[in-house]
Amino acid sequence: MLFNLQRYSTHDGPGIRSVVFLKGCSLGCRWCQNPESRSRLKDLLFDDRLCLAGCNLCSERCPHAITRIDDSTLKLQRALLTDADYDSLTGYCPTGALSVCGTAIDIDSVMAEVMRDKPYYLRTGGGLTLSGGEPFMQPEIAAELLKRGREAGIHTAVESCLHTPWSYIEPSLPWLDLMLADLKHVDDARFKEWTDGSAKRVMDNFRRLAAAGTQITIRVPLIPAFNADRTSIRGIVDFAADEVGVKEIHFLPYHTLGINKYNLLDAPYYASRTPLDDPELLAYAEDYASSKGLTAILRG
Asked: Which of 130, 133, 134, 169 is nearest to 150 (CA)?
């Protein structure tokens, strides 16, 4: 399942890239900026700011799941929607207030779109990046896309949380040039509380990637009350330097640009509603990483 294909990206690996976003993730991070990517199934997004007063097209098409309450309000019962409903609603809303997130992936079509920009990749050292969600939740698709990219002579990368079985990751390694992997915490209890996952699984996968000789860039989202403190940063950097042996680490200060997506999904948001604003902490993170021999990059 695919939920986006973004061309001309410059933040998802070296050079100019096309980013293929795959649906499905095994984590439930409180601060997730792509909540529409969590489910491996289709999602229905509703933006009431775009809803046309008096329009009943969607409620007439799916009356069992969509009801018009008044001129500006729809009642959506997403659990009642079937695959056929999603298909019938795709592209149907004239204002885009109601949209379906997720399409069945066609590898040939995706690669045809990606390869439109091959001259830019070759000129800038860019290429194809898989993102999500968690790309390795669809291991066969991920491996095939990376294989096609490599065979086409372009650079390949994956953005991953590494919270999957190793057997999902390993098939992609022969075709992978760069792993951009999140290291959110090294404390298993804290990790579990904030993500519903296992830090041990992630750290074990980092060790296996290092043993396999994979080129890795570690990314650290700095989240208030979770890991945006000196103790957590030291633990993360120590693991990155001493056990994974990476050369580069990116610090990503927490922002709130994804909050509105929760409104579109009618889902609660459990993280801070205030971006991280702590220049002293960010300077400490960069300095400590540098002291451990890492190239530290701060990304906004």
From this structure: 130
Count of the separate structural domains present in the chain: 2
Could you say which of 85, 101, 117 is where a domain stops? 101
- Alpha carbon distances (Å) from 96 to 1, 43, 86, 262, 296: 21, 14, 14, 17, 41
Are 132 and 30 members of one domain?
yes
Question: What Rg value do the Cα atoms of the chain yield, rounded?
Answer: 20
Q: What is the pLDDT along the chain (300 residues), one digit of tens a residue?
A: 999 999 999 999 999 999 999 999 999 999 999 999 999 999 999 998 999 888 999 999 999 999 988 876 889 999 999 999 999 999 999 999 999 999 999 999 999 999 999 999 999 999 999 999 999 999 999 999 999 999 999 999 999 999 999 999 999 999 999 999 999 999 999 999 999 999 999 999 999 999 999 999 999 999 999 999 999 999 999 999 999 999 999 999 999 999 999 999 999 999 999 999 999 999 999 999 999 999 999 987
Q: Are residues 119 and 212 in the same domain?
A: yes
Domain coverage including residue 147: 2-38+104-298
**pLDDT the model gives residue 73:** 81
DSSP track, 122-160: HHHT-EEEEESS-GGGSHHHHHHHHHHHHHTT-EEEEEE
Relative orientation angle of helices 279-291 and 230-239, to the nearest 10 degrees: 30
Contact 141, 22 (CB under 8 A): yes
Asked if 236 and 93 sit in the same domain, the reply is no
Q: What is the DSSP letter of 232?
A: H
| CA 266 – CA 43 distance, rounded (Å) | 11
Q: What are phi and psi of 211, to 5 degrees?
A: -65, -30
124, 15 Cβ separation under 8 angstroms: yes
Torsion on CA atoms 192, 197, 200, 202, rounded to nearest 10: -130
